[in-house]
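I have been asked to look over a protein record a colleague put together. What it holds is a sequence and that sequence's fold in token form. Please read both lines and tell me whether the tokens look consistent with the sequence. I do not need a full report, just your reasoning and any doubts. This is what I was given:
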Amino acid sequence: MEKILTCKQMSELARNSAKNELGLVTLSSGVFIPAMYIYSMTTRILLSILYGLLLLWCFLGVAIVADMFMCAIERITSKTKSVKTLTGQGKTQVRMVEIPVWNDTVANLTLMALGSSAPEILLSIIEIVSNNFCVGSLGPSTIVGSAAFNLMVITAICIISIPSPQIRRIKAIKVFCITAFFSVFAYIWVALIISYISPEEITLWEAIITLLLFPLLVILAYLTDKNFMIKTKHEEPTFQLTDKHLLGLNEEDRDDAISNIIKEIIKENPDMPEHDVKNIVIKSLKDQKKKSRLWYRINSTRMLGGGRKIITVLNDDVERVYQKVILHNNMDDKAVAQSDVKFSGKSDKKSVVQFYSSHIDALENIGQIDIKIIRQGNLKNSFQLHVFTTDGEAKVNEDYELVDKIVEFGPGEAEKTIFVNIIDDNEYEPDEHFYMEMEVLEEYHNQVTLGSISKINIVILNDDEPGTFEFSQPCYLEKESSDDISIAVIRRNGADGNAWVEWAIYNMSDNETPLSNGKLLFVHSEKIKTLKINKKEMALKDSNYIFKLLTVNEGSFIGEIKFTIVNFMEDKYLENISSRMANLKDKDLLEALEISTTSYSAQFRNALNVNGGEIEDATNIDYVMHFLTIIWKVIFAIIPPTQYAGGWLSFCISLTMIGLLTALIGDLASHFGSLIGLKDSVTAITFVALGTSLPDLFASKTAAITEENADNSIGNVTGSNSVNVFLGLGLPWTIAAIYWAIKGVAFDVDVGTLNTSVIIYTCMAIMCIVLLFVRRYVGLFGRAELGGTSPWKYIFAAFFVLLWIIYILVSSLQAYEYIAGL
């Protein structure tokens, strides 16, 4: 009977075999590259250079294919469904909105974590399978080294990237606490099982538990995100209310938005080139979309490869038009929407606080509403408010749950959100109201004054409504030669029973006296009516008129677009606008608004052209990087577009490609390390960890600068580090443990430097996480994880980088036995 060698015996045999060779350097056999024996120093130097360049080139290649892999994940996790909810200022309008099918927390910890960490995880799996199901040095050390770089270096860069004195706080702090705990516990668990529970051996149950900690993490994070542990008997599962800009625009809204943007641009600069107009439209629409961490990861990858970027960069002249036309209009819209918010103009020595709006309407089945308290004036002090609810027609514990709490504002905090739970009793009752009030605690009267809205009226609406009426769009452009005008009035969010809405036409110079009026009748289930006006019959000779919706039948509502303006323009001018609108609604624009491609032709076009074909916006660096990566781009263009099978086909094939390329990277990294005198464990925590993490660095920095919170920049780092252990070690260890259990032999491991690396990283990680919480809760540091004032943010960043350097040095010194292992 043939004797079965254990992992330790095979490792010892390989070391003895290498010692017997006469070569200067022995390169072990890999998945793709065979064993080599180097006898000449010249050959060693030349191969070192060649392998180093090939390794860098393969890092670019894995970034390119990871881009397509993450596009598939983005397609999968961006799937939405339509639900009825409240939108608009004060949550007063009932609309059908699109909400994600995937919970953000679950998506971040599963597919999105896999998207950013796929090379490290696959390297660990491939190494153990190709190494006769024995644990190697490259895969596990890469996972630990990547975790150290992500937590310490990326966090440091993000801290100093925020302009002083701006700050970024983690919004989903409860989920962050869960992932932070698991990111430390995961590595403590690894140290326990390889050195203490079953020294130098991994049992089947240890491997399975390591793998099962992954779904446990996802479940606990999801329950925390949903406030599972603090639900009351009156609460029902709710979804997060979102406005249109959070989820992106549907086709109808997008076309309207494009039209309005073009009109504003032409008014400001009629002779602007088509290309610049298109870029402004693309940038404006992209800025309205909710962005995940993968969105920033994909953009950073394309920057490295000279590909089509998803963050549109404008030149100085076009940027000025964008700032004036788009951002100025957005600020005007916000000013109109926030017309209730008026401050007394008191000195900045005091803080001025008040509610965001004086009135909020909420459907009875809404579950939970959020009420914002805003602060102006002095933003440097700290104070407390007493916020409480009082009954009106609505009664506490019958119609809503009591709020009676102390709200604390810290330095730099300009806004707080209070949540009120609404009780749905499933019985018809008329609209009822209650109040929320605020008062300043006595000891803070010399620091804080209340604004004009210190009391808010909250109305609970019956959830069986006949509909909301509004115009289909806020503006119409008509030719001067047109005789008839057709204005669409739509009925949203229900069409129960017969209903009517009164309308009137006014001259823009006199909106008090109607030129004409009437009533539109809607029968049961009718959702659209067209208001037809004959221009000649009504003697409409001016260039601008305003149509208004005045009143509706009892129980109905008038929506956000309660008036529309009709502009009569010269035929030639209008044709110019129409032509530009038609040009900008073409296939190229729609593709530019998507992060992924929808056809093979588009994929190969992007692969063969610098900056995806947008040559006008390409930089010199883009040309260089495109030249270096064009072979990879063409190879990976054969991956099916994400529109096939909901993105799953692209997901599977691109994951396979990443696996193959990762295996090649493992071979090159091992040989390169041997040629320059580095052990695999040291190569893994330096070159390989940095090579796989650089796209994450650029992505996190961009997210930190552009996002309002720190969730997409550092909030997901701890979750990703946890997933790396549970999948990157748990899965291959489970496979190997099953293999050796079938053989009837123990799955032993050569602990080597892994235990020291894990313990050192764990200590550094605990220090980093504790310091992040210190920054969050101490006013001196800005009460935020990122940003703050100088010099504190630079001190923290330098200390985090120092921790990473200490980790690298200690792990390397132990690998070469200059210091004893832990």
The chain has three domains: 7-230+608-816, 351-461, 468-572. The two ends are 40 Å apart (CA to CA).
